[in-house]
């Protein structure tokens, strides 16, 4: 049976830089390990979060895996105060899109260090 823990793989040009980006957003570093000469970072919203982002070096995976590196997944993060989070990310110099209202929810996107887009939705 499945449990509540979910790990989402992200590929990055620079694992350390990508990990630092997520930590800038308030994520915590769960682990930073070297595997066969390549860094792998795991970050989560909190130390007890059931969802973790595992960041692999894109070039390492492309060179050592028989399968192609998939594009980044489309992730939608939830927030109880979208406007405050938007302002916080903007103040930290994170590239953000405009806030839009869809029904009763607010939505915006932001870009990580590798140019991947992520969405935030909520009140």
From TrEMBL:
InterPro entries: Glyas_Bleomycin-R_OHBP_Dase, Glyas_Fos-R_dOase_dom, VOC_core. It comes from Candidatus Enterococcus moelleringii. Residues 1-123 form the VOC domain. This is VOC family protein. Pfam families: Glyoxalase. It comes from the Bacteria.
